[in-house]
C-alpha cells in the first residue's frame, strides 16, 4: 500500500504523540471529503516494511502511537504493519470511514475511529457526530475527549 503523507500529530489520539500515515486508495468517496487526493490508489509512495521500520525506529522515545488514516482496504498489509508497530512498543490507532472493520485488524488496535465524514454532522469534536472514537479493549466510546469544555 502507498502513503501520501507521514506526519507527527498531537490531537488525533488524545494524550499521544502519533506517527500518522495517510493511506491512498480510499474507496469510500465521502461527499465533502477533505482529502480527495487519497482516493487514487496510485498516489503516494509505496510503504515498504523497511521504510516503515526505519520511521518507527526514528521516532522511538518521542512518539507513542502509530496512527493509520485508512488502509483497511488492504487488510493483510494493515494487519502486518500494526503488528510491527506493537513489536516497537507503540500503541496503535486506525481512523476508518467504515462503521466496522475485520476482527483481524481490530485485534491489533488500541483505538479505533469509525464512521464516514458527514459535513452536516461534523467530526469528533461535534457532539452530534456520527463518528465514534473507541478504546478497543473496553469498547468504551471516548468522544468526550475531543469536545472542548
Ligand atoms: S473516508 Fe476519509 S479519505 Fe475516504 S472519502 Fe471519506 S473523508 Fe475522504
SSE inventory with pairings:
Blueprint: E1 2-9, E2 18-23, E3 45-46, H1 49-58, E4 65-69, H2 75-87, E5 91-95, H3 103-106, E6 111-114, E7 132-135, E8 140-141
Parallel strand pairs: 2-4, 4-5, 5-6
Antiparallel strand pairs: 1-2, 1-3, 6-7, 7-8
In short:
With 149 residues, the protein is α/β, with parallel strands linked by helices. 18% of the residues lie in helices and 24% in strands.
Structure overview:
By secondary structure, this protein is α/β, with parallel strands linked by helices. The protein has one domain (2-146): Aldolase class I (TIM Barrel). Helix content is 18%, strand content 24%. The chain contains three helices and eight strands. It has helices at 49-58, 75-87, 103-106; strands at 2-9, 18-23, 45-46, 65-69, 91-95, 111-114, 132-135, 140-141. It has an eight-stranded mixed sheet. Helix 2 links the parallel strand 4 (65-69) and strand 5. The longest helix is centred in the middle third of the chain and has 13 residues, at 75-87. The chain is globular, with a radius of gyration of 15 Å. The termini are far apart. The model has no long low-confidence stretch (mean pLDDT 96). The structure holds iron/sulfur cluster (SF4). Iron/sulfur cluster (SF4) binds next to loops.
Amino acid at each position: 500500500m502507498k502513503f501520501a503523507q507521514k506526519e507527527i500529530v498531537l490531537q488525533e489520539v488524545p494524550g499521544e504523540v502519533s506517527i500518522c500515515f495517510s493511506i491512498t486508495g480510499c474507496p469510500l468517496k465521502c461527499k465533502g471529503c477533505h482529502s480527495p487526493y487519497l482516493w487514487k490508489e496510485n498516489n503516494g509512495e509505496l510503504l515498504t516494511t523497511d521504510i516503515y521500520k526505519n520511521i518507527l525506529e526514528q521516532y522511538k522515545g518521542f512518539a507513542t502511537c502509530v496512527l493509520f488514516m485508512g488502509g483497511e482496504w488492504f487488510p493483510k498489509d494493515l494487519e502486518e504493519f500494526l503488528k510491527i508497530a506493537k513489536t516497537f512498543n507503540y500503541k496503535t490507532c486506525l481512523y476508518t470511514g467504515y462503521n466496522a472493520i475485520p476482527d483481524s485488524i481490530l485485534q491489533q488496535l488500541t483505538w479505533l475511529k469509525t464512521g464516514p465524514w458527514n459535513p452536516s454532522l461534523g467530526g469528533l469534536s461535534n457532539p452530534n457526530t456520527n463518528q465514534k472514537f473507541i478504546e478497543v479493549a473496553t469498547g468504551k466510546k471516548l468522544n468526550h475527549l475531543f469536545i472542548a469544555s
